[in-house]
Write a structure and sequence with these properties.
This protein is mainly α. It contains 22 helices and no strands.
Length: 435
């Protein structure tokens, strides 16, 4: 009987060992899947998803409802914050409060604004809400808003009569000369013209001659990392880079993104962590020692002054490492998208909340969801606007089951380990001489 009991214990022992080892092998896979499923709810994609924008917009709506203090007349308070933004020349914030009016006013006014917006035949949802909310402002605030929107009056120059063939050729010209001139004018009119450069693009980069003047001060100063200078140089030479190098970023977008970062740097509005991130990216792309050496040669007084800008451009182009552009371009793409949606001036104020790459993606999600309303909220809420970002990804039932399975496997492993230790302790106790 004892022999039979010992054999049954041996048989159950190897089965328990197989189960224990199987569960121990499966546990890492269960843990990896559970962690990835939970981590997905906190990860922001480079391009915000529809779910993320929708969830973030709901959070922005909720924060607008919290702006008006309790016991205060909602319409009077809303008009006062719009008026304050206008007096501070913060037109994007004023527009944001106008678009957010239905969430700040009482339910009756909100329904009236939504009804008026639905009657607007043209424009986006935000544009319709803005047009409808304007009529709920007091007359003086509405007039001030309209004055801010009014473009600067331009006095037209006197029109001049186009030159006639007699003005060009003289009164004694032959018919053949007149025909030749007419053909030339026709050919010139049909020839495709180079598009005029856009003056609406936000840019604070200057020219290569400006860059040369700044470089003269930077080259002898070995303690200056030259973040602003190198960033500006990259923005200027981006126009001469191939599309394959810049990827999805156009030269104009690169210049606008660099201008935003340069403005924030000069205003000391960037967080130290993000400045360090920029410096690491620039060290890989435009190494300071090599750039100093080439700029020192380019700025040599023996060269012709008329070629100075071109020589500085060549120094930056020769130093640029296109293979190391990935980190810098990744951030510039996000800054460019933020500036395009919120406006460059608002982007300068918003990037001060950014400390790293994940913060940039959060900010882009918030801006894509709220547009001008984000600029308005930034002036009113105490916490960072980055806290408004939502991924829109909830914990699925599959992830919950994985977490339950992982917890069950860990409990089983602990129980088996404890049982094995208990059996071993009991065996040694029975073998001891005292027993």
């Amino acid at each position: 009987m004892a022999l039979t009991h010992r054999k049954s214990r041996r048989g159950s022992g190897w089965r328990q060992a197989v189960v224990f080892n199987t569960v121990m092998l499966l546990t890492p896979f269960l843990a990896a899947n559970a962690v990835s499923g939970l981590f997905a709810t906190q990860t922001f994609a480079p391009t915000p998803s529809v779910e993320a924008i929708f969830a973030t917009r709901e959070r922005i709506d909720a924060r607008f409802r919290e702006i008006v203090p309790r016991g205060v007349n909602a319409r009077a308070y809303w008009a006062s914050v719009v008026d304050q933004s206008l007096r501070e020349n913060n037109l994007p914030a004023a527009k944001g409060f106008l678009v957010g009016a239905p969430y700040m006013l009482d339910p009756e006014d909100a329904r009236a604004i939504f009804a008026a917006a639905n009657d607007e035949p043209f424009g986006t949802k935000d544009e319709k809400l803005l047009k409808a909310a304007i009529f709920f402002l007091p007359n003086d605030v509405r007039a001030r808003y309209e004055r801010k929107l009014r473009p600067t009056e331009i006095v037209p120059s006197p029109t001049r009569r186009p030159p006639s063939p007699d003005d060009v050729l003289g009164t004694g010209a032959s018919d053949r000369e007149r025909v030749s001139l007419a053909a030339l004018e026709r050919d010139t009119a049909q020839r495709p013209r180079r598009p005029e450069p856009s003056t609406s693009q936000f840019s604070m980069l200057g020219t290569f001659n400006d860059l040369a003047r700044h470089s003269r001060r930077w080259v002898p100063d070995a303690d200056d990392p030259g973040i602003e200078l190198r960033l500006t140089g990259f923005g200027l030479i981006a126009a001469s880079l191939d599309e394959a190098v810049l990827g999805s970023l156009s030269p104009e977008q690169a210049a606008a993104a660099v201008s935003v970062l340069r403005s924030a740097l000069r205003a000391n509005r960037l967080q130290p962590a993000f400045v360090e991130r920029l410096e690491r990216a620039l060290d890989a792309t435009l190494p300071a020692p090599q750039l100093r050496l080439r700029l020192g040669i380019a700025l040599d007084d023996r060269g012709r002054p008329s070629d100075l800008g071109e020589r500085v451009k060549r120094a930056f182009s020769d130093t640029l490492s296109t293979d190391e552009l990935e980190d810098l371009l990744r951030d510039l793409v996000q800054v460019s998208a933020i500036a395009e949606t919120a406006g460059s001036v608002s982007a300068v104020a918003l990037v001060e909340h950014v400390g790293g790459g994940d913060d940039l993606r959060r900010l882009r999600t918030v801006v894509d969801a709220g547009h001008d309303r984000v600029t308005a909220l930034e002036t009113r809420i105490d916490d960072s606007v980055l806290a408004l970002a939502r991924t829109g990804v909830s914990i699925s039932r599959y992830t919950v089951m994985q977490v339950i399975g992982l917890a069950t496997a860990l409990i089983f492993l602990f129980w088996q380990a404890a049982a094995a230790v208990g059996r071993e302790w009991q065996r040694r106790r029975l073998r001891s001489p005292s027993h």
